[in-house]
Amino acid sequence: MTSFVLHTHADPGPSRKLARAAMSILGETVADKDVLYNFDLALSEACANVVRHAYEGMDQGDLEITVTIHHPDFVTLEVADWGPGFPTMPQDVKNAQPEAEGGRGLFIMSELADSFSTRKQDGKHIVSITINIGASQWIPYE
Amino acid sequence: MDSLRIENKDNALHLVFSGEITLEITTDLKKAIEKAMADETFDALVADLAQVTFMDSSGIGFLVALNTKIMGTGKKMYLLSPSTQVRKTFELVQLSNFFTILDSEEDLLQL
User: How far apart are CA A22 and CA A28, in angstroms?
Assistant: First the structure.
């Protein structure tokens, strides 16, 4: 198991740059382009949720991405914030109505993840996204 | 703006996007497009998505809002040649049939 921790201020520009840095790490580990796109999309949604909602009504705080590679089985992405906390995760995450401008982030993450959960730990609120990686989808170890 | 080129062709306002459409850029895109919509005369708006490499739900929300705004003025909005990545995001949130998607500029001429 190998972990990488990346940290920045939870503004739109820095957060997207941090997600790209996480994807750069994954790009050296996972070969399959579709799987990488799924990671990028799920990560972008998790980061956007922090930027938009984690610090509502207060000074914008920080955002942390942890990439944990469990070769040869799966990769877990965790996105953490230090805000007051999110509402309880709904049992059944629904897609938004077509005309809705927002409300699709959780649905996208839950659709893409093999395992998707939230927790509070050490003062952080963490969204955890695990995607299984098939044997042929890894970049082979030298 | 590097990620957006705006052209008025035969009364169709073409928005040619490139790169990523995410929360990082949607506020700037919205401002640029609102200015063009105020300055230009047009009957239809064409969002060319062929060169978009990545789009998340912030990008989708941006396109849905733009569509609602255009429909409210009695004009039409088309999505032109969405890239594979954009189509994938649309399919994931089941919006492939919500927008009018054209595969090529020739399709636009035949409308």
Answer: 10
